Amino acid sequence: MDSTRIDPAHIDAALDRTASGGRVEVDDAEALLHARGAQLEQLLGLASALRDAGLAASGRAGVITYSRKVFIPLTTLCRDRCHYCIFVDTPGQLLKLHKPVYMTPEQVLSVARQGAALGCKEALLTLGDRPEERWPAARQWLDDHGYASTLDYVAAMARLVTAETGLLAHANPGVMSYDELVAMRPVAPSMGMMLETSSRRLFEEPGQVHYGSPDKDPAVRLRVIEDAGRARVPFTTGILVGIGETVRDRAESLVAIRAAHERHASAGLGHVQEVIVQNFRAKDHTAMRGAADAETLEYVAAVAVARLVMGPDMRIQVPPNLSDVTELDLLVRAGADDWGGVSPLTADHVNPERPWPHLDDLAARTADLGFELRERLTAQPPYVVDAEEWIDAGLRPAVLRLAGVDGLAARRFTESTRNSTDDPSTSSGAGSHPNSNANRSPSLSRRRTHDGQVEDPSTSLGVVNARPVGQLIERAAASPASLDDDEWVRLLEATGDDLDLLTATADDVRRYTIGEAVTLVVNRNLTSSGFRSTPSTEDDTDPQTFTLYDVAAIAVDAADLGATELCVQGRLPASEDPSAYLEIVRTAKRAVPSLHLHAYRPQDVWDLADRGGYGLEAALSAMKDAGVDTVPGTGVKILSERVRALVAPGDLEIDRWIEGITAAHRAGFHSTSVLFYGHVETARERIAHLRELIRIQRASTSSATGGGSATGGGFTEFVPIPLPGPQGGIPLVPGRADVDEHRAVVAVSRLMLSGSIPHIQIPWTRLGLPTAGVLLQSGGDDLGGVLLDGRVKPAAGIEQGLELPVADAAALAARMFRPFRLRTTDYQVAT
Question: pTM for the whole thing?
């Protein structure tokens, strides 16, 4: 960071010149970047006023935009060596991860089709710079598959995605020449490459972040921005704040972007369609892992200065997942008006530790800030409106089909897809997208052979299409809604090579949607069935019972041991007043306000509602007021009355469980979901259970959207749990090994729930860590909780004695060469 001091009088003078309409050049930009306190407040006022004037002039007053996208990481190989990047792999790492050198067309279309079913309009194609120039494995793959270069493959995949799904490609392949930009223009309505910084020191000085990375030469990157203007490409660029650049570097970078934009303006419209101001976030396993994140006010000042340098007509974009939700207000006050691409399906593979906000939550937060959230396309509205100038003739029909007269995404598409969000199994899959062709094969991309001829790769797809079950698995990955119950049952009963292919495909879906991380929450259980308002005797030492005094001690102890969550569930004894459900939560929250309370299953809530005289809705409201944050979706084995009557007649009736969990979601609570399998249920009943969870999820998210809830509820994860004991361990396929039974369940769950319930949690307490590791390679991504015993009343929590040390979980992930991350209950980054 830059420690240069600026005379406050210079900042005041720069503010005065800017307020008077003066053009912000480098010296003033540098001064303004140092504004703090009252001067920063004045800077924010100028920036937001300029933004508002620009939006009003464009006919979009009070609108903040975003693009609904899928993130497709075509390859994680790169010839650069940036010190802060966790996106890239080496060929050796790919081999250990069983990860392809490049995503195949089938894998690309699997993600794109699911995204189309969720209403996405953009496919962000991201990759490392020219990997074939560093890695022989990349060159060999391209040669084997008939592509002249990585960019040639990017173009082929962009063309394929639009032809097959209707998604519009935003190409982000790094440095391109003028000729390459021209060649890419017919397949991508917009392209991008971050300038990051114009600092030559960071590129030329050994030890700096861009040293040894030929594509990070500022002169080369500025040339690309210029060439994009010559090629008439709507182009995205921006700066990265906090990577070791000086404040003056930031000022010079912003002014350089403006200069290139203005040099290629026609009728007042230049080619730089948006400027991203991105804050640095340190990542483990990088050279900058110990560096401090960009300081908040320093970042906010950079956003405001970007607005003032670029003017009212530029879209200033800030990624919403890289800032805490409480900081979004500052970023909007600084003049930001675009959140960029946000995905309902895929992770941010460049920043995998920072999940995207749920789109309903982002809309609600944007509304709280006084703005309407509107969906745009990959190209910003002016470039869509002036499509004849900016969009290749061959792409115009695909772009204009999705656009309204204002150049934003047409409301007829954005509104119709909101109600199907997170539920591909109830839509018509890719065919529901307004520009898709559901009847075409997912393998129709054409490619060049070594002799220059063009072939249809559907004739040489290898193992996936070699057997009928392979075709079924491919369909399950690309369009889960297209499979009927018989087909899902067939996959659930797979064995041998078919099962291996099923689990490998499910793991690919996990990799290219949720990402590579294995996650774990540090928590403790407290079984509310053990609550006693008073001890039964004066010297009561029953280790499984507890009082409110114990609750406070347990909460403090758990937090002291590093827990971020206290999980409370279990029906109170009939002798206890049901108001104790609320008192337990209030007591824990008073003791440790920061502790996340994950509390009360549907049957517990019904007990509070019925015996407490609340009714269901009021009981949930009282829980929220008391401090409950999320609820467990447990207390049901499988959503079948036939099975419940046979194996768990004491469980809550199925319709009451559904009513209870749906009401909890409607009240804004997120929850888990489960399936207990391996007893008397049939394969069809397992599939019916998953379908019902998807239906509940759709109803929950639709209700939250339509009802204007500040935060809509829904399932965050699915936990397939094998039933132990005499009734458990019954395989669907006679003689199939237990581990194969578990692999099939996890893989089918991943495929069927993809795009609906994001996380598949592996119940290590039932399976043990070795089997859990196998299932993490069959589509699973989460290990649940540590289940701390604690030092206060350890036996008062269910599953006591089964604590999972964080080091053991991290070691398991390391053996699979996957990153490990501690999470919060709602899958944010644990701090």
Answer: 0.88
Sequence-ordered alpha helix ranges (H) in 561-682: 580-591, 602-611, 616-626, 641-647, 654-666
Total Cβ atoms within 10 A of residue 268: 8
Distance CA 424, CA 718 (A): 16
**What are the distances in angstroms from CA 747 to CA 7, 226, 345, 685, 776?**
62, 47, 17, 17, 10
Position 712 confidence tier, pLDDT thresholds 50, 70, 90: low
Q: How far apart are CA 73 and CA 755, in angstroms?
A: 17
Which DSSP letter does residue 403 get? B
**pLDDT confidence of residue 3:** 53
Give the residue from 130, 344, 332 showing the smallest Cα distance to 216. Answer: 130
pLDDT at 173: 94
Structure tokens at 101: 């050198």
Tallying the residues shown for the chain, one arrives at: 831
In angstroms, how far is CA 274 from the centroid of its own chain? 22
Q: Which residues contact 507 (CB under 8 A, 6 or more apart)?
A: 98, 747, 750, 777, 778, 779
Give the distance from CA 329 to its chain's centroid: 21
- Alpha-carbon distance of 385 to 390, in angstroms, equals 9
Query: How many CB atoms sit inside 10 A of residue 413's CB?
Result: 21
> CA–CA separation, 131 vs 115, rounded Å?
27
Q: Six-digit token pair at 199? A: 């600092």
Secondary structure E strands in 528-612: 565-569, 596-599
The CB density around residue 313, as the number of other CB atoms within 10 Å, is 15
Per-residue tokens: 789: 């015993």
Q: Are 570 and 532 in contact (CB under 8 A)?
A: no
Q: Which residues pair with 823 in a beta bridge?
A: 521, 829
Here the tokens at position 538 are: 């004066």
Smallest CA-to-CA distance from 637 within 658, 651, 655, 620 is with 651
| Strand arrangement, sheet containing 523-527 | 523-527, 565-569, 596-599
Please tell me what DSSP assigns to residue 801: T
HEC string of 125-175? EEECCCHHHCCHHHHHHHHHHCCCCHHHHHHHHHHHHHHHHCCEEEEECCC
| Residue-level pLDDT at 60 | 95
Q: Which two structure tokens, joined as six digits, stand for 616?
A: 């269901």
**271 within 8 A of 234, measured Cβ to Cβ:** yes
DSSP type of residue 102: S
Query: What digits encode the pLDDT tens for the residues 627-660?
Result: 999 999 999 999 999 999 999 999 999 999 999 9
Beta carbons of 424 and 480 less than 8 angstroms apart: yes
Q: Residue 104: pLDDT band by 50, 70, 90 thresholds?
A: very high
Give the pLDDT band (50/70/90) at residue 433.
Answer: low
Two structure tokens written together for 312: 């009212």
Chain position carrying tokens 């010296």: 27
Q: Is the pLDDT score of 342 beyond 50? A: yes
> What is the CA 398 to chain-centroid distance, rounded?
26
Of 678, 635, 151, 694, nearest in space to 420 by CA: 694
Beta partners for residue 276, in sequence order: 238, 317
Long-range contacts, 365-368 (Cβ 8 Å, 24+) = 365/325, 365/328, 366/64, 366/339, 368/710
Angle (CA) 262 266 270, round 5°: 40
d(CA 221, CA 215): 7
Q: What is the residue type of 148? A: A
pLDDT per position as a tens digit, 446-474 = 333 333 333 333 333 333 344 589 999 99
In whole angstroms, give the CA distance from residue 790 to residue 555. Answer: 10
Q: Which amino acid is at 388?
A: E
Distance, CA of 794 to CA of 561 (rounded, Å): 13
How far apart, in whole angstroms, are the C-alpha atoms of residue 79 and residue 174? 11
Contact criterion met (CB below 8 Å) for 136 and 110: no
What token pair was written down for 551? Answer: 């609750």
Two structure tokens written together for 649:
């007649």
